[in-house]
Design brief:
Blueprint lengths: L7 H10 L2 E4 L6 E4 L7 H15 L4 H4 L15 H4 L3 H11 L3 H14 L6 E5 L16 E5 L10 H13 L7 H16 L2 H8 L8
Parallel strand pairs: 3-4
Antiparallel strand pairs: 1-2
Helix pairs in contact: 7-8
Length: 209
Amino acid sequence: MLIGKRGATRKMLEEASGAGIVVDSESGDVMADWGEQEVDPILRMKMPDVIRAIGRGLAPKRAVKLLEDEIFLRIYDIREWVGRQPNQTRRMRSRLIGRDGRIRSLIEEISRTVASGAHCALVIDRAGWHTSAKLKRPRNITLIPLPPYAPELNPTENVWQYLRQNYLALRVLDDYDAIVEACCKAWNDLLATPDQLASITRRNWANVS
């Protein structure tokens, strides 16, 4: 997706940023290289957000706007607002993203960025509109649904498991405020030990250099 059809996306990013975009074909690591030239430090700071946004599925033409001073990238986990129940997150996603039509448009947009002769494996969750029979996929895309429970693919699951096992399990709390206080203390205690947090979420196959 970062390179785009016939290198169009990479060329657009290089023209917008003045950097050379280098993609490691084996690891998938991406580097923006300005060489010896003087570069605005803000541009250096914002370039990773552009790459991250494209990796998350934002259209490259929109992602490149993140290089502008007034535009920033923020990624939210909607589970922080609606909880972790699958039906709640599905309901909220449908309101934010939309169903069938918008998902179809997104997949078609991804399809157009796949290099000629290449094939895209698109990993999706099991939201109803992702697995709908109405959803038609282009020939150059294969949809791969995640298993219903896949902590090895989502390190955040291991964080919740650690908090439950070490702070929150087998406790009786008096009221709502006590529950919130216990959860906040557990989270803050974990944040105070970044090495522990890193060890919980580390994956040998997901290294970024």
